[in-house]
Amino acid sequence: MNIRAASRCFLALGVVAFVVLSGRVASATLPIDMEVAMESGVPVTAPQEWAKLLGKLDLNRVRLRSIRADDQPTLEARESVTGQRIKIVAILTRRNELLLPKRRFKAHNLSALKTYLEQLAAEGTEVDAERGRFDLTEKQFSAVYADLSKTIDFSTKDLTAAEVLRRLEEKIALPVSRSTAADSRLRGSPLGIELRDMAIGTALAMALRHEGLALRPEKPRGKPLQLRVLLYDPSFETWPVGWKSETSIRLLAPKMFESLTIEIANYTLTEALDALTPRLGVPLLFDRWMLNKLEIDPDKIEVKIPRGKTYLKRAVDRILGQARLAGEIRVDEQGHAFYWVTQFGKNSPRAEN
Fold first, then answer.
1. Do 249 and 329 meet the contact criterion of CB atoms below 8 Å apart?
2. What is the pTM of this model?
3. What does the alpha-carbon distance between residue 111 and residue 108 come to, in Å, rounded to a whole number?
4. pLDDT digits (tens, 9 = 90+) for 138-168
5. pLDDT at residue 181 greater than cutoff 60
6. How far apart are CA 20 and CA 5, in angstroms?
């Protein structure tokens, strides 16, 4: 029975329930079964109109019936031998609106309904889940965070960003994509920084930043979660170089708050930091991309501190300030602390939770 004939049968005989098939079950592209429960008092032409409209959407199966007392708009994902299938119960109201969970459509919104159903087929029942960072659901973000929390177990000091990325792709589950423009940036010089024992997410963000690149997790429609390497753009949300910890920085890096008598004279910033860093208790890492952008060379900037008693962090902050730089204690995805040195601003925002 085709849709038009079924609709005429419904109207003529007053049948309270009937099944509408798309007529294209064999070639249906969306693994969705929809059951439409009609409120009493729907416009007399509504069943025929909606049967015709829904028949255009390549759904696997559509059924129109009268409403039951316990009917509510619902979505349910079911596993079958051919993959995941979605069952929808929708309500057709007396105002001639189709109600789905968190959504409502009128007959003239067919294109919006089609788009929504395609998203539903691609993403499952999470299509309506609340989204946060990177437009990911909480479940998706947690999966990315867990994958990027693995530890780097090799030395990076003599490797380029491209070599670090290639080796880390073997350790993480998420696929990595990159543009031609990003690939050309990856042919740079060795990083010169040691990221062994750091979590992959923070380390990879840092290595890519070295070449003016960034890392962004994404969930393209119809595709699995992935990581994308792209040219750095401050207007684009990307994976950060470390996070702000809820733990007090005095607990994260207690040695930086030890009091000592110090005097620095006739030293470059590099020489002074080389002398102080072993006492910090946490790694000190430069934002080399920002230093190059600002033409700040720690090997050529002289710093000084008159003799006096202070604590180590204050001394480090003072000499960094003389080079127009500032530092911030951050943690990687495993909660390990490090001291990130940059010039804060739109191109180098402070850490976020």
1. yes
2. 0.73
3. 8
4. 989 999 999 999 999 999 999 999 999 999 9
5. yes
6. 10
